[in-house]
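HUMAN: Mind sharing a backbone?

ASSISTANT:
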Amino acid sequence: MERRRGSPDFLLLFMTLALVGFGILMVFSSSYILAYYNPDYNNDSLYFVKKQAIWAILGFIAMLFTMNIPYTVYKQKFPTIAIGSFILLLLLFTPLGMKINGARSWLGIGKSFSIQPAEFAKLGLIIYLAGLIAKKGDRFRMWKQGLAPALIATTAFCGMVMLQPDLGTTSIILFTAVVIMFSGGAHLKHLGMLCGVASVALIIFAVAAPYRLARIKTFINPWNDGMNGLEQGYHLIQSFYAIANGGLSGAGFGKSIQKYLYLPYPQTDFIFSVIAEEIGFFGCALFILFFVLFLWRIILITLRCEDTFGLLVGIGVVSMIGIQAIINIGGVTGSMPITGVPLPFVSYGGSSLLVFMTSMGIVLSISRETFKKRAQRQEQQLRKLSH
């Protein structure tokens, strides 16, 4: 009879729930003015926070579910998972796909319930690449037998997301895939070729549309056109105002000024600006430190895993979360061009929160199996000593 599975890493579980709880608070603080004065949200100041709370509950259920499934199940089903997530991307270009704010990124019926397939594609590609590399072993370094299928899958996923268009999510998927393939033993020259071709494609894609080119110009100097209310620079300047108003100690929870219909998308893309305004530099430093420790905890759990698949899934998850956080915070602070991706676990967004919490469930499942194997080795050592 198989031994009972080990306990999950409770510290990581607590840190995940703490991030989600903080996110719900900040979604409320950043969105209640916008929701109250907008008839599209029924003039309900709790519109966004109620929906976020529902998604958090669904995410918690998904995390518990995946936490209690041996992660090796995903290793066996990795082609099916990849195909399923890719089909969701294809459905965007059917009547089920919805175009909002110029992007065909949502799948559903009306605004009452919709999902973003690109969020699920992130996790689907991570599992596929980890499963492929674990299955191929040393053969993964060979071009035709291992690396070519990985590059084809990465290109297909990135291409479908780019067609929406969603440059930010495309970048996250691409960089996460590169980290996984590098960790799996891919030759640097092959990854260099991939990065080179991808960089050229992203640059062409970025300058092909006027609004994307405007974002690059805004990043260089937002003050050129930033005082015109409808121009790209306005968004970044309002973010600067919020961060500056926060100062060292912050204006206080709920006391942001810029969320009073000045700052665009305060509950999603620019939620870190509201955080900076309300808790200040010291509060943001503590938040970022907590986030770094959270990522470090995932890395520790991942490195303790002796299975290649589990190791690469953990690397993929921590890369996905870390890269997305860097892109979001870098964009709203003017450190890099704005691409419109949410801050992991914190920004409003049901699909994003559900996928991130599901990913943490898989990492917690890895921690359970690792704990079980460690306990088994300790038990074997005790038996040897007793004899």
Observations:
- Residues 350-386 form the longest helix (37 residues).
- The two ends are 24 Å apart (CA to CA).
- The mean pLDDT is 85.
- The CA atoms of residues 245 and 277 lie 6 Å apart.
